């Protein structure tokens, strides 16, 4: 009887010491780290007069032509990424934006066509369809903007303030935003100052702030110059700026432009960013491909 008693006692103790199955906290489940293999690529195009071949000619390669080649490289990097995945894991998007929208109603159709999405039901012929769209439509966009000739500027600041989270960030994706711009920022509807910080940057402003010497960084810091912060936390967004093109006459202009952008990104908690000058597409393509692959 004693043996039976001790055996029952041991079984009872073992049962008590067993841990209950761990319950999954639904809040924690929702905060699982996004799959880096799912990418969401956005392209924001500055259609200001920087693309006008009459105002800013370049005999080597016009700036609007450079842009279209940058976009092709972005599309190439995006498709390269898709091709590394199994079809069942496809969950990737790419799209193009302008801010503000150009007056040509065809632009809406162009952007709709350039909004592409891959999922597990995507057919093999979709790859060639995407390649065709991205080899033809971007050129149509620039030609339309140049023909229209109404360069009202590019409201990049307002895009970051009111649209970037809704348009360019998906919680379960690695989010990459490419901005095609000369680095200057100006729009008549979003032009204001907060103390000495501004929502815009022009060559005239750079001169008026005396940012024309090698000591420009100290001047910026001392006078607390820069862009007004447009958002609080964009840590889940990677940004690549392509096409920085300073006006001639100030050898430090490019450095000032990049300093403004870098400080702005850091203030908005963007950790991963690159700011590149308007180089030939053949030189920037490897950088673009690497930015998308993350390697």
TrEMBL record:
Domain of life of the source: Bacteria
Name by which UniProt lists this protein: VWFA domain-containing protein
């Amino acid at each position: 009887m004693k043996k039976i008693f001790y055996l029952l006692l041991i079984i009872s103790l073992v049962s008590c010491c067993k841990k209950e199955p761990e319950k999954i906290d639904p809040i924690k489940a929702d905060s699982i780290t996004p799959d880096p293999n799912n990418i969401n690529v956005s392209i924001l195009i500055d259609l200001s007069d920087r693309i006008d071949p009459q105002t800013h000619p370049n005999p080597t390669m016009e700036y609007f032509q450079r842009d279209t080649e940058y976009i092709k490289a972005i599309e190439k990097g995006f498709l390269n990424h898709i091709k590394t995945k199994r079809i069942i894991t496809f969950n990737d998007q790419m799209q193009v934006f302008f801010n503000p929208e150009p007056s040509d109603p065809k632009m809406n159709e162009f952007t709709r066509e350039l909004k592409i999405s891959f999922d597990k039901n995507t057919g093999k012929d979709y790859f060639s369809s995407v390649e065709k769209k991205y080899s033809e439509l971007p050129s149509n966009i620039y030609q339309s903007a140049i023909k229209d000739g109404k360069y009202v500027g590019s409201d990049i600041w307002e895009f970051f303030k009111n649209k970037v989270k809704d348009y360019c960030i998906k919680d379960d994706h690695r989010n990459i935003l490419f901005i095609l711009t000369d680095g200057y920022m100006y729009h008549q509807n979003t032009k204001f100052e907060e103390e000495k910080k501004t929502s815009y940057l022009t060559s005239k402003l750079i001169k008026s702030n005396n940012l024309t010497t090698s000591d420009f960084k100290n001047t910026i810091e001392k006078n607390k110059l820069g862009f007004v912060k447009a958002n609080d936390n964009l840590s889940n967004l990677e940004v690549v700026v392509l096409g920085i093109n300073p006006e001639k006459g100030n050898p430090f202009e490019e450095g000032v432009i990049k300093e403004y952008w870098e400080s702005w990104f850091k203030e908005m908690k963007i950790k991963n960013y690159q700011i590149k000058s308007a180089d030939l597409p053949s030189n920037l393509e490897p950088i673009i491909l690497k930015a998308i692959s993350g390697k």
